[in-house]
Fold 4-nitrophenylphosphatase.
Amino acid sequence: MSTPDYLTGNKEAISQFLDKFDVFLFDCDGVLWSGDHLFPGSVPTLEMLRNKGKQVVFVTNNSTKSREDYRKKLESMGIPATVEEVFGSSYSAAIYISRILPQRHPELKKRNKVFVVGEAGIETELDSEGVSHLGGTDPAYRRDVTPEDYKLMAAGDPKALDPDVGVVLVGLDFHFNYLKMCYAYHYIKRGALFLATNMDSTLPSAGALFPGAGSISAPLTKMLGGQEPMAFGKPNQAMMDAIEGKFKFDRSRACMVGDRANTDIRFGLEGKLGGTLGVLTGVSTKEEFLEGDTRPAYYVDQLGDLVET
Amino acid sequence: MSTPDYLTGNKEAISQFLDKFDVFLFDCDGVLWSGDHLFPGSVPTLEMLRNKGKQVVFVTNNSTKSREDYRKKLESMGIPATVEEVFGSSYSAAIYISRILPQRHPELKKRNKVFVVGEAGIETELDSEGVSHLGGTDPAYRRDVTPEDYKLMAAGDPKALDPDVGVVLVGLDFHFNYLKMCYAYHYIKRGALFLATNMDSTLPSAGALFPGAGSISAPLTKMLGGQEPMAFGKPNQAMMDAIEGKFKFDRSRACMVGDRANTDIRFGLEGKLGGTLGVLTGVSTKEEFLEGDTRPAYYVDQLGDLVET
């Protein structure tokens, strides 16, 4: 395995690095900001890249926010961005369901509804792709399970289980409950595909960890005897395929920028991108980048080092 | 591996079988009844055993019911029983927490409260052993998570996280939610033991399967990087130890009766009981009992064959 090139302070190397790529995919937390703190070099770096005519894409596993919600979050952090530059795991799942699934699973063509376990971000992205859905934020699913529910589900009664549901899509759901677990399980047992926006087991907030989307799908995996969902977030390549499907870029001219070796850098390496850039302002340490199993092609102390040489 | 003795229709063999044991541990669903249907031979068999002075124990993994609740269920099925004859996974967990844990984990002596994810059956059994608890059916935990929750939990603020909590006990919880997952995770990260009443991934109801206690603990296991809870239901031997602790019986003179090779029969075999009796009125087939990896010492077509010869 080769040693990553260290770019910080090396003007010549940075210039060559930038010339190699047309597209930069950015992980956000740990790269552009940390928690509520925007890194000072983030905005100048993005500006420099845009001025050079590079395409920037903000890639997020966050499934609760739609692209527009996430654009607003970028804006609130002080980073100007367009909706088109944002690529989230919910959007990635929606694209897969609307564009790829009908070809791969023609048997599901007539079962074109999605049962959602998740928040509004998923619903917005399914709507943007014209995909019908139920569950999700519908308050009718925020209640206790009743003996009648058991009977109707056990009987496969269409009053409980919509026969048009061909996909169960699970993301982070702050309103996850027993009833939704029952529905999701019974739809899958009746032939629906089991998809997840992403498999992050935890979600960082306020400096600590809380349950992530991967923990919401865990009970279903347990009930299904270990069956894992098909997932769309980094490092899953379904996400890269969806990004490529949208931006039609040349993978050899694209670079993934991230702070985590095992998700961001792995995502770029397995996607056979032309390059990967590690930053040391997040989770992975210099030792991980230099000696780990998953090494970026390049690394910098911080993203802003690309402009401040 | 030896072939199980088939007792049905063999009066002499049945008589010898009965003479070997003083205590009979019964799995219930699939042995005494199926769903709402009581098998006709169940009551006469239990009567015959009691008339012969045998101790009968009803062993259930059901964590939502207290022993008294379960006794009522037995009664409603037409089976007379006393509370003392009922042994459930919640009671098993309560006994472990009150009697064994203080010796095994002296460091938790001052952290003597249990955070419960589960229903009233767990609370009743903890109360019966004088163990303090919080969470559970308290309506204060049936709400959405707020930004304030994140901050308080991240800071380990005693307003959110009671410093006296030394155990998280997870059972089947029909009111499971995101907030309880957050609490359970943060208590465990702060040193609380991770216990589960039982690990059944599903719960049969109305002829179909629904999420079981093992699915309720699955998100925590996912968040904790794969850490499994210590569990008390069959086939876990913590349950057998608790039963022995209470009834003080001679294991060589005890027989486990069940319909499932991989839980009931395994429970008896790993517990080194004198005998195991499989019945063919539940989940396991004759082939499983005769050719599987976990074989009972004896089997009958149905429990009632012990009296109707």
Summary: The first helix of chain B runs from residue 11 to 19. The radius of gyration of chain B is 21 Å.
